Every structure is written in C-alpha cells, then in structure tokens.
C-alpha cells in the first residue's frame, strides 16, 4: 500500500500563471493525496498586492493538509481571515506570536489510507533572517539542528508513524547537508530554493522539490519502507480559469477579470525597457545614490523580481518591485565595500552605485539596514524603492 504526497514550494502568489497547477491540486485532492506546501506560498508579485493574500488563503484552505511557513508568508499568516479553517502550520523550530489565530504544530501525524505519515517542518536561519524585522516580531526561532530534528522524528515514530518526512524552507543545499549529516528522514521536501536542481539522492536518502512560481508539482509515492518513487510535474503557465473542488466550484474567472482591470492601469513610461531584475537593481541604485546625495548606494538584486516594459502598468511595477522599502542613510563612518561584504554574508547579491566626488556616506534600504543591524536615518525628502523607479519614468534607465 502506498500513499501519494503532492508538494508545492515558492508559489509566490502565482495564481494566474499557476492555474494549471491549481487545477491539478483539485484533482489530487479528490484522489485522496496528502497535499503540503514547503513555504512562500504568498507574496512576491502584483497579484498578491491586489489580493492581499485572500485568494491564496482560499487555495490553501481548500486543497492543502499542511503548510510550512516561508520567509514571505509571515505577514499573511498573521492576518488570516478564517484561521480556524486554515490548514495546520507545521514548524518545529519556530514559535508564533500569541496573536496568531490558527493551528501551529511542531510536527504532524496524518493517516492516509493504511499509512501513518509523520511530518516535521522547519525553517532555516538564512530564510528566517530574510523576514523583514517588523514581520518577524514576536516569532521565536531556534536553529534546526540534526539533533532537534531527530527528537521530532523519534517522537512521531513513537506515536506510531510508519514513515516520517522532513519539509523544509531552508534551501536545497542546506537540506542536502542535513541528509549527509544523518537526519532520520528518507526524504526532505525542500523550499526556499529557486534552483534548477529538483532531486538529490544517496542510497535511501533524498532531497526533492517542486517547480517554483506555480510551474508544477512534486509527487512522491511513500510506503512503510520509505520512498517508492518521485515525479516532477511541469505545468504550462495559464490553463483553465476555474477548477472543481468537490461539490463547490472554486471559480477564478471574475477574480482574474477584476485583477486585470486593476493591473492594466498605466502609471508611466520609460524611454526603453529594462530587461531583467538585475538591470532594474542597477538603475535604481544609480538614481537612489543621486536622491540620497551619498557616495554610494547599495541594494540587493533580490529586492526585484522582473524587468520593466517601456509602458509601465501598475501590475508591471508591482511585479518588478513587490517589496517596497524606504531609502536610508547609514550613520557613522561606513565604507561601501564593507557594506557590500556584509550583504553578501546574508546570502544576498548586492549591487552598488558609487559616485564620482560624492558628498559622503553610504545609503541603502531600510530592509537591508535592519537585517544588518546597522543604525540609520531616513533619506530626506523621504523616498522608497518604488518612488525611485517612478522618478525614472520619461528617462532612459
């Protein structure tokens, strides 16, 4: 007897491109599969800004058995509209604030057919550190060491689990290192990856992940001896506009039409398109250095998710820069090279715009300064990443 696990990761509110994946979730739900998400289901695009996470919450509530928290999920998890209906959050090394209204478990034991499946969720230190300071307030973090994970797995086995899987929002390489260290999971389902590698195996140990951004699913067949098989389902973007979930119709047609009206409003024009997010980062850094009147401005490439067309719509702006944050000037004596190195140590890719004969000092974003623990003061007049982008309108970035 085997049990099917269906997993997603790093969906990032990709409801429009992920319609085929949502339809597949409905079919697997009806077939009795165990459906889990490995984190970052929310956030990172214009759709999330429009929906405020409401549509994403409905998808998770309708189809999922368990959710692992990702670094982009915290704010949405704290403002769930129907926390009593939401699937359990499973994470053994993170505790939520007292105001969290849903169900939070360090581990979970589920019976699917004749198989009792144990699940241990965890979040890596780098992922938790990437949560904006205000969004992680009240959460308690503990390093997910092999010893901690073994205690959780042993507890599930003691309660009668036939097989225990790890579900991680830590990054693929991190999870491979845990498997090499001997954590007691036949498979770790990975999130926080955004990589081309989907499967690592060594003897009876595995790390596997789903395609990100709604582009597909991970399917695992489990039995009492561990993993029977893996399959990666890749889905084309788009697909059907509605799916059937049991007796209820989860219709997306009206919602998509409303979103497209909202997102299609033109907010400005560029002389030429900006081709990708790294080019956007360079354009923003150069203009932000001028706005802040400093010797250098430093920003992270991952603050951006896409390039910009010449004709910029509200949706294109939010897709390119979904994580708006204020510009700040670091206080005290700072060298841009030192700030760049600190940002690299966070696992980020920094971009720096130096000046020629500038007025002194280093500026960056409030998000990065908070993560680095560096004191700062706001840039005057007050500016943000998005206001810098809009200042590029009408110019060649």
From TrEMBL:
Protein name, UniProt field: 2',3'-cyclic-nucleotide 2'-phosphodiesterase (5'-nucleotidase family)
InterPro entries: 5_nucleotidase/apyrase, Metallo-depent_PP-like
Residue stretches in coiled coil: none
Leader sequence residues: none
Superkingdom field: Bacteria
Protein's organism: Asanoa iriomotensis
